[in-house]
Automatic annotation (TrEMBL):
<keyword id="KW-0067">ATP-binding</keyword>
<dbReference type="GO" id="GO:0005524">
    <property type="term" value="F:ATP binding"/>
</dbReference>
<dbReference type="InterPro" id="IPR003439">
    <property type="entry name" value="ABC_transporter-like_ATP-bd"/>
</dbReference>
<keyword id="KW-0472">Membrane</keyword>
<dbReference type="Pfam" id="PF00005">
    <property type="entry name" value="ABC_tran"/>
</dbReference>
<feature type="domain" description="ABC transporter">
    <location>
        <begin position="12"/>
        <end position="243"/>
    </location>
</feature>
<protein>
    <submittedName>
        <fullName>ABC transporter ATP-binding protein</fullName>
    </submittedName>
</protein>
<keyword id="KW-1003">Cell membrane</keyword>
<dbReference type="InterPro" id="IPR017871">
    <property type="entry name" value="ABC_transporter-like_CS"/>
</dbReference>
<comment type="similarity">
    <text>Belongs to the ABC transporter superfamily.</text>
</comment>
<keyword id="KW-0547">Nucleotide-binding</keyword>
<dbReference type="InterPro" id="IPR050166">
    <property type="entry name" value="ABC_transporter_ATP-bind"/>
</dbReference>
<keyword id="KW-0813">Transport</keyword>
<dbReference type="InterPro" id="IPR003593">
    <property type="entry name" value="AAA+_ATPase"/>
</dbReference>
<dbReference type="InterPro" id="IPR027417">
    <property type="entry name" value="P-loop_NTPase"/>
</dbReference>
């Protein structure tokens, strides 16, 4: 049996965070009094409808937004701005079209002052991990969408971030490519043990990937329930038809769409900290 590697990831804590956007009379609250934590090496999914503030929270964890109230920390230290320790992957890749795949992956190391030969060696190793060893000297335009996202993930992971923040990174891919990318992510996560906070509105994706799913309600977003995901790892696509998986999916549907299940609680009747499993205990 392969030994489980020591978690490389850091501990993310969100303590009673509220985030507001806009100015003057147009200012509005996107997230309200959100508390959660992601433990070192854990994979947590934020699941919710469009507009509930999932991506906004991820932007704050990346250091691009400051909360109106509350506190965000990594390993107990306040998050005050962007940092390579918190890598961010978007739905659409941000690769430089004029750079080769290898140079794109090595770019962050170049900004750190890593010598050319060393950074190219590390970039080549990361490309091998994502299955793109033969494409180091291609350009992004020569790759499929799934391959471009592999490069994007490699470019973030080459910096060995303590936290990987993923904002619907597979949302633009076709179903088969998306499934393969989910399995690749789980393989990389099992190897590197980086803490992952993954944003999605796809229930299957959240339950397939996560250790825990945190369900957010409509704007202003707040956590309405925490769902531990009990399925053994490694996970494969066949899990999606498992009766226990289907039952958990039904619960998610009830939370996101109160009309999807008989007797399901309406979101506006749930307390800000949820129902069956209180989320408050995850605040730091």
């Amino acid at each position: 049996m392969t030994a489980v590697p020591t978690p490389h990831g850091g501990r993310i804590a969100v303590e009673r965070v509220s985030i507001e956007l806009g100015t003057g009379a147009g200012r509005f609250e996107v997230l309200h009094d959100v508390s959660l934590a992601a433990e070192p090496g854990e994979l947590v999914c934020l699941l919710g409808p469009s507009g509930c503030g999932k991506s906004t929270l991820l932007g704050a964890l990346a250091g691009h937004l400051q909360p109106a109230r509350g506190r965000l920390t990594l390993d107990g230290q306040p998050i005050a701005g962007p940092d390579p320790q918190r890598g961010l992957v978007f739905q659409q890749h941000t690769l430089f079209p004029w750079k080769t795949v290898l140079d794109n992956v090595a770019y962050g190391l170049k900004m750190k002052g890593v010598p050319r030969m060393q950074r190219q060696e590390q970039a080549a190793e990361m490309l091998a991990l994502v299955g793109l060893s033969g494409f180091a000297h291609r350009y992004p335009r020569e790759l499929s969408g799934g391959m471009q996202q592999r490069v994007e993930i490699a470019r973030v992971l080459v910096n060995r971030p303590r936290v990987l923040l993923m904002d619907e990174p597979f949302g633009a891919l076709d179903a088969l490519t998306r499934s393969r990318m989910q399995e690749l992510l789980l393989e990389l996560w099992a190897l590197l043990r980086t803490t992952v906070v993954f944003v999605t509105h796809d229930i299957d994706e959240a339950l397939f990937l996560a250790d825990r799913v945190l369900v957010l309600g409509p704007r202003p977003g707040r956590i309405v329930e925490e769902l531990p995901v009990p399925f053994e790892r490694p996970r494969h696509a066949s899990l999606l038809t498992d009766p226990a998986f289907v039952a958990l999916k039904r619960r998610c549907l009830e939370l996101l769409r109160p009309d999807a299940g008989a007797g399901a609680p309406a979101l506006d009747r749930l307390s800000p900290l949820g129902a069956a499993r209180p989320v408050a205990r995850y605040a730091a």
